[in-house]
Amino acid sequence: MAPFGRKGTSKASRLFFATDLHGSDVCFRKFLNAPRYYQTNTLILGGDLTGKFVTPIIKHDDGSYELEFLGKKTVPSNEEELASYEKKLANMGAYSFRTTQNEVEELRADPKKVKERFNGLMAERLSAWVKMADEVAKASGVRIYMTGGNDDEYFVENILKNASSVVNANEQLVDIDGHEMISCAYSNITPFKCPRDISEEELMAKIEEMATKLSNPLNALFNLHVPPIDSGLDLCPKVDTSTDPPKLLIQNGNILQYSAGSTAVRSTIEKYQPLVGLHGHIHESSGMKEIGRTRCFNPGSEYGEGVLRGFIVSLNDKKVASYQFVSG
Amino acid sequence: MASERKTSGVFLRTSSGLVKAWSPFDGFVYNWFGGAFLFGGFGLTLYTQMLGSFPGTNPYLGIALAGIGSIPMMLTIAMLATAMPRTGGDYVWTSRVLHPAIGAASVVGGTVIWSMCFGAWNGYDMAVYGFGSALSWIGSITGSSGLTAAGTWALGFMGTVIISIIAMIIPIFMVIFGMRRYAWIQRAIFAITMITIGLMLAVLAITSNQQWATSFNSMFTSPDMYDQVVKTASVSTTYSWSDTITWTSVLAPGFAFSWYMAPMLGEIKKADNLKVMSLTFLSPILFGMILFGLTTYLLFNVVGQSFLASLGALINNGSPLLSSLPLTLYWIYLPMVAMPNTALIFMVCVMITAMMLFYQAGNYIGCSRYLFSQAFDRILPGKLAYVHPRFHVPLVGILVMAVGSILWVIWSNFQPSVWIFTAASLLASLGQNLIISLTGLLFAYRTPGLFESSPAGRYKLGGVPAIAITGILGLVWNAILAYYYLSIPALGAQVPPSYYVIIVSFVGMFLIYFISRAYRKRQGIDLGLAFREIPPL
Questions:
Q1: Which residues on B lie below 8 Å from A327 (Cβ)?
Q2: Fewer beta carbons under 10 A from the terminal one: N or C of chain B?
Q3: Same domain membership, residue A25 and residue A169
């Protein structure tokens, strides 16, 4: 049962929420431009900030470079073209580095070195993002909240904590124009053994710990990376976890689908009935779903195409005045 | 969680994941039936009558022209699909590349309105070409007065109305329980159709012209009825370019329906893979060309081109010459004249029923996705974006289409004169094709960032994006077809009341966008924001 709330004391707020950028440089730069473009005073970036693949750009003895772009071997004809491929890769969320064939062979032979290289590239880009975001926040007065996601390594927290203006909202209770917001980067267990997958019980404990501190849950925002189970915002294909990487489960020619959302997230939303639920995690399941009085949003993600998907949500004293899905 | 990318030249992190839902095969089947619209919707029922109207046509040339002419547009669609593999298909592409009002007008004026009307065709075809014809013939062969009466009922007014309404209701239940279940039904329909068509063609392949003519004559008291049909109709099958181009103009929009699945791209696996999408959109055309060409070849060999054209002319003219037969001899029943096997006739009836249910289900699926995506963008009421939590289908959109279709079935059956408003419906679909081609032409220039990051961005000819080239070719092709529709009266589009409906539906939806925009603005929502690419900092 939802608790009784105090009378609202919040001001009108217009926020933009996006999530699951997975390293896409252009999507992040679009995100930072959202206040000017969408006339919002608050930016919230949900989890999964870091990318998922690295493209080595191999330098050959004759000075030419070779890389794989969109599954095709590509040989840029000059430095300018090479730079444009590096930019395209960054926009798609990929990391790239110039290297030699020998180093690539070394990396292939040593997964530890691959991970180190990944982490270095992820940290480098995220640090650059945070620096950019700090500058925007300082210059415009816009509040920017960022959290990691289950797919982000723990070192992401340190980078976000070092920000001067950007707020690392993960496991924090922050105030947005009188609306309290709690955030959680963690997810229930996924088949992909992501760095921040935890059990439903642990997830419940983390959310509860924050929710109990809320002075007015009915007027709060729950920025929880994983969507509530069976909400329609959490539908994804089922995979066989006995293989590495997990394989899609296909039955009679059809990909089996299931609700990958969290029971803990659902039950806390049902219990506290916050004003808004902000979610991500499942890229294909974008939409808005009402759970009781709570409007839960998942804007989905098309970071690979360089398309920024998000929701503009206008909040009045005690209600969602309007919301709008945008992509561009 | 993120999309899986498997390539040999990159390093992947261990976690990756989500992909789309429907298999490309299901998409192909869906497109194939869409492409087979000319074979099923038009060819199945109107082939003989078309030959009667355009007896001088060279069907092979017409099939080749219609098929080849459709290829650039299919490539354009494949490239747009991989760039924006989203539910709503061409609405999404057009609204983002050209203008949201154009996107909304294109899909509503080009498809949604007509899909409600086409439902009545599907019901009529099921009643008349399916149950009525098959049961009457089987009743005649077996001497069963019950079956004959059932066939007569199906051919009559009330029979047609009731069967048509049932044909609108059953597909609701085919699609509302989710696309995975629907895929199964669709595969069953595909199997039934392929087996039945295979058997029909096999019967034709083992029948000679002499055998067929003898069997046909034996259905009458007059022993030379085959010759009498040709003599009475007195049509000339001498080659005519005019007839051929008219025939091509009828076939081409049918081939263009090979992009039937575009509105549901968000639910199809590998919709971001250009090779898969190109095959999915192009192979139905190739398949349709081969099947339609083979059917024509066998029919001309066995039944004879002159006879077919003459039969079509007699059906078109309502000639009483063949009135002693228990059914109107639409081409779909011609193979069984030489082999009047009741099981095969029944199979044809089942096939027609299944295909019409498929078409109607397709109307619900595609249009509900169009409505869903516009509601998601807040142009249309939010209820249309409601997705059933268990079955994950846009339930309200499906029901809106079903109610509209049932109302049209009732109205058009009780007031047949309203059909005049749909005479130029294919012209409307050409309008939609023109807009899609224009979208392809301008895609790389209006949304360069999206183009460069899409698979289509890799393909350029002499520095010109391939999609711009296919876009302009598609534009020219559809403009030529539109010209023929506007200039050849036989194509049935020169009907002013129907023009008005097209204008009202396109312009009306165009205006609705602006009305909705003004209304949403009062709610603090700027609709324009949903469609613009936000510039990066």
A1: 530
A2: C
A3: yes
